[in-house]
Amino acid sequence: MKVFGIDIIKGSVRSRTVAPTYALVIFEDGEIRSEERVSLSRLLRRVHRYKPDILAVDSIQEVAPHTLDVYRFVELLPPQTRFVSVTGGERQVGLIQVAARFNIRFNRFDPFAEARAIAQVAAQGTGVEVVAFEKETEIVVSRNRSPGKGGWSQNRYARKIHGNVLTYAREIEHELQSAGLNYWKKEFKAFGGVSRVVFHVREKREHVPVPSSRGGDVQVRISGKRLERIQFRPLTTRPRYLIVGIDPGTTVGIAALDLNGELIRVHSSRQMGMSDVIEFLYSLGKPIIVASDVSPMPFSVEKIRRAFQAVAYTPRQDISVETKYELAGKYSYGNDHERDALTAAIEASRHWRHKFGHIYKRVPPGIDMDEIRAGIIRGFSLEHILDNIRTPKHKPEEKKPEVTIDTSDERVRVLDGLVKDLRGIVSDLQSDLENIKKDNQRLKRENSSLRSKKADLVKSEPEVARRDLIIENLKKRLRAEERNNKKLHQRLKRMKEAGGVGADTDIQAVKVLSDLSRESIRQLNERISIKKGDVLFVRNPGSWGKSSIHELATIGVEAVIIGDRKVASVPDELKRLFFTEELAIVSGKDVPVSVKGDFGSCDPDHLDESLTVWKDELSEFRRGKSEEMIDGLFKEYLAEREREVRKSG
Q1: From CA 511, how far away is CA 224, in angstroms rounded?
Q2: Which of 51, 172, 266, 618 shows its CA 20 to 30 Å from the CA of 355?
Q3: Weakest-pLDDT range from 18-27, 225-234, 312-321
Q4: What is the reported pLDDT for 9?
Q5: What's the per-residue H, E or C state across 200-239?
C-alpha cells in the first residue's frame, strides 16, 4: 500500500498573498520512501504520477477550506486515490491522541514529523475517507474548437468537428457496452453530426474504462455526481474494543468506555431484555471487559459476558456510594443505575491501566495499541501478541500440532479451580432458579384462590356492594358541595366588603367592571353580585352592545361611570344607547373614582351633580325623539296626500 502523508508548512489556501507549502512523505510497504517540500499544484502532479492508494491529511481544511473546494479537490484526484482525514470527520480528535494509539510519538512543531505520523496512522487503517460523489459518473463528449464566425469553408469545417464528436461518442459507447456498464445518453444534434453527447453511467468513476482527454476537435470530461452533503466513511469497519459496566435489575444501566478510559456511551432503560442489551453493545463495538460494581458478579451480567467471551471484572468488595459519586462525578449520567454501571466500567479501566503502564516502551511504533491491550487482557504474553500481528494473515494451511496441557503450570491449576468454582456457582443458581419457579407457581395459586373468594363474597352480599356504590356517589356529591361552599364564602366576603364601603356616608361605593361585555358583567355578578341601585365604574368600555346595556338596565343599576381622566369623552353612539335604556351614564372626568380591586369610591356630591346634568340631557333627548317622531309622521302624511292627489288627478 502506498500512502501520501501531508502537513502544511506555511501559507494557507485561504490567503491571497502566501500560497500554501506542504511537507510530503511517501510511505510504502511499511517504510518511508521519500520526503520533500511541495506546493499544492506540485502535490497534485505527484499524486497523478504515483497514484497512491491514500492521500492522508491532518485536517481537510489545509487543502480545501470550503465545501465547494472539497468537491473540486476530490475531483482532481485520480479515481483510485482515497482522500483521508486521520483525525476524523465531523467529530475530530487530536493527531497526538490518534498517533498514541499506535505508540507513535513526534515533534508537533515539525511539519515533516507530523506528515510521517499521518502517513503511518493512515497506513494502519485509521481515519475517515472523504466521500463527495455518488455511485454515478457523467461523461461529456464535446467540441474542443469553435466553428468560428464563417468563411468559404465554414460548413465543411463545422461538419468535420461535429463528425469527430459523433465518432468519439460512438467509441466511448462501445467501450461502455464492452465493460457491461449500465448507462443512458443524451445527444445534441448539430450540422454534420453532434455538438455534444452526455453519458450518465451508473458506476463509480474509478470503474469507468474511459479517461478524460483533450485534443484536436474533441474533448472528453469525466466527473462524478456530487452528493448533497460531504460524507465521512471510516477506512476500517473493525469494531472498537470496549470496557462495559452493567447494572442489572428492573432498570438496566449500561456504560461503555474505550481502552483509553474515554466515555463512549451511557444508557439506561426499563424495557431492555438480555437480547436487547447484547444488541445495543454490538452496535457500540466489541466488549473485551464486562464489569460489575458488586462481588460476586450477578448471574444476568455473567450471561452477557459469556455472549461476548469477554473478561470479567468485579471489585474486591462492593463499591460504596461515596466512591461511586467520586468516580462518576466528572461524567454526566441520568440516574443511579447509569452511575453504578459507569462506576463499574471506570474501576475496571483503572485496574487494567496500571497493568498497561510497563508495556508501552516494549512495543515498537506503528503497532495498534488496542490490539496489544486486548491481547494482554485476554491473558496472552506481549511476545505472542507481537508475533501474531507481524505474521501474515494469509499463510499456507499446515497441520496443527496436538495441544497438551501442562498440569504442573500454576496458571493452569488456578484456571482449573476457577472453572470448578464457576460450575458450582452455576449449579447453585440453577437450583435457586427452580425454587423460585416453585414459589412463583405457589403464589399464583394463592392469588387465584383469594380472587375467587373475593368474587364469591361480592356475589353473596350484593347489599354490601350496593352500599359501597352509594357511599362513593355521596362522597363525590360532598366534594362538589364543598367546592360550591368555598365559592359562596368568597362571594359573601366580597359582598361584606362592598357593604362596608357603602356604609360611609361621605363616599359613594362603586363596583368596578372591566368592560361593557356580557362576559365581564357575568363574572362580576358571580363574584360580588350586581344589585338594583348599584353604581358601576368602567375604565374603558371595550366591546359593548345593546344586549349588555339592556342587561344592566334590567338589573336596575343607578348609574355607570365611563372612563377616567386619561380616557377621552364618552362616544355619542354609546350615550344614545344609554339614553334609550334610560340608564344614567356619567363621564369619569366629572366624577373621579378611586379603585381598589373589584370596588371603588367616589364623591357623592359630584355624582349627584352629574346625574342632574344627565337628567337634563335625557329630557332633551326625549324631546328630540318626540320631534323626530312628529316630523316623521308629518312627512308621511304629506307623502300620502301627494299620492292621493296624483290618483284623483
Answers
A1: 81
A2: 266
A3: 225-234
A4: 92
A5: EECCCHHHCCCCCEEECCEEEEEEEEEEEEEEEEECCCCC
Q: What is the DSSP letter of 109?
A: T
Residue whose C-alpha is closest to residue 526's, from 535, 537, 513: 513
Contact 533, 607 (CB under 8 A): no
Retrieve residue 212's grid coordinates: 478524460
> How far is C-alpha 338 from the chain's CA centre?
21
Report how far apart, in Å, the C-alpha atoms of 492 and of each of 478, 488, 535 are.
Answer: 21, 6, 19
Hey, how many other C-beta atoms are within 10 angstroms of the C-beta on 431? 10
CA distance 363 to 290: 26
**Residue 142 DSSP code:** E
| pLDDT tens-digit map of 253-308 | 999 998 888 889 999 998 888 888 888 998 888 899 999 999 889 988 998 888 88
R_g (Cα) of the chain, nearest Å: 47
DSSP, res 543: S
- What 48-53 contacts at long range (C-beta under 8 Å, 24+ apart), as own/partner pairs, is 48/78, 50/2, 50/4, 50/26, 51/2, 51/78, 51/80, 51/81, 52/2, 52/3, 52/4, 52/26, 52/81, 53/1, 53/2, 53/3, 53/80, 53/81, 53/82
* Residue given cell 491481547 in the structure block: 375
Looking at the chain, the whole-number percentage of residues with pLDDT higher than 90 is 15
How do strand 559-562 and strand 584-587 relate by DSSP bridges? parallel
Would you say residue 400 has pLDDT above 50? no
* Global confidence as pTM: 0.47
Residue 142 has pLDDT above 90, yes or no: yes
Q: Which of 25, 128, 117 is nearest to 85 (CA)?
A: 128
| 226, β-bridge pairs | 133
Q: Residue 377: is its pLDDT beyond 60?
A: yes
What's the pLDDT tens digit per position in 485-543? Answer: 887 777 666 666 555 554 455 788 888 888 888 888 888 888 888 888 888 998 877 77
Per residue in 71-124, pLDDT (tens digit) is 888 888 888 888 999 888 777 788 888 888 787 888 888 999 999 999 988 888
Residue (of 527, 463, 457, 448) closest to 491 by Cα position = 527
How many other CB atoms sit within 10 Å of the CB of residue 29? 9
Preceding amide of 111 cis, omega within 30:
no
For residues 245 and 255, the answer to whether their CB atoms sit within 8 Å is yes
Residue 50 cell numbers, joined: 504515483
Q: How far apart are CA 94 and CA 104, in angstroms?
A: 13
Hey, what's the cell of 30? Answer: 511499511
User: What one-character DSSP code corresponds to residue 361?
Assistant: G
d(CA 221, CA 611): 97
